[in-house]
């Protein structure tokens, strides 16, 4: 009994520590994703809270952590612009959650495995590119009021302190992850995003005290309303506009959110399971239902859409988490921060949050990924590029569809190219079926038959085919029927199995003979 209690206490201690670490990673990400999405910072924190307090309890994953995802920023910005209001967008989040629950009930969790890897990598890379492009203006402080600290540029006034802080923050984030930096205990103990936020707060306070003229204006800092009670918290919640439930655009956005959020969740779940030392597996269908309920709650309260996120999940695992308690603890701490840390959070420069997301975007679209896809050949590169171009030119859902279509066409082409083989020796020809022959292989068959001259001897071998489409059979029927006129001798060897009625209807499927 004492041994069991000791194990429980050790697990509890590990989960509490991991929950604190995940909270420190999630806090700046929640604020940064909300700012990048063009909504109130509270919406990002609210999604993190729901991910910790709701999804963590319903999920079957021991280590996965859920919250607002950088990968959905592009969809959120586009959707709010299309729908015209945040309240209409919340309806889409609510519907997306319901669709995810339906996906889970229909056991659609395994469908993500059918999406080609190049398409998934292309989707993530395109999200990374869009994330960088959209965060650069914020990192530069574009649009800040003209002052002695701004520089006039073709894109508008650039706030030099914000630009300098963003550049230093991006550099710090990359340096923080190098093996040389990891030799220091401080670097190993403090997450990179937290270090950037601490740097930003320190610079903000220092400039306010020493050089107010160079200080960051209120519009370039986090603006989180002070919440002194749960009544104030209830007043800060945003409600969806339920009259928009009949809007077709709302449903289109909801479908996009449901598909992309589900894909990101399932990919994150698979990655975490592979990293888990105990190789514990969770039901993907249960995870979809948990995420769906979380998104329904987030949409109803005024939060951003939620997914399982690999950055926070990795931090959770690396911090020594053992159960879902760590994710729940991180949600509790996010809730506490809304009440206790508002004054500190409002000192965070938006440039620092933009730097965090720029680095996140770089990780999704790093040049090494493109080089790796090029080395893997055209069959992988073409769907990858098609997905990126499709997403950048249209939207995420259409771009994913374009990438899948490109993958299917390439797979069909590769599959059909080797259906038949025609070997030649003098005036003797061997036409071999190398695999099952569908109607799509008919053009290749016709090309092979066209190469056979008059007065030839042809041996047809279909031993390797278990199925031959009727179009293929009829094409061979016509060739065999025309063979006597062309003085062609045709010999059939082995044919695929077909039913008795088909044998009666197809003369050429009867026992082999020579024409």
UniProtKB/TrEMBL annotation:
Keyword Cytoplasm among record annotations: no
One example of a Gene Ontology biological process annotation: transmembrane transport
Top-level division of the source organism's lineage: Bacteria
Main subcellular localisation: membrane
Localization, UniProt: Membrane
Keyword set, alphabetical order: Membrane, Transmembrane, Transmembrane helix
CC annotations in GO: membrane
Topological relation to the membrane, as annotated: Multi-pass membrane protein
Cited InterPro entries: SLC26A/SulP_dom (IPR011547), SLC26A/SulP_fam (IPR001902)
Domain SLC26A/SulP transporter: 12-375
A Pfam family the protein falls into: Sulfate_transp
TM region(s), chain numbering: 42-60, 72-99, 111-133, 154-176, 251-272, 293-315, 327-360, 381-410
Protein name in the entry: MFS superfamily sulfate permease-like transporter
Organism listed in the record: Paraburkholderia bannensis
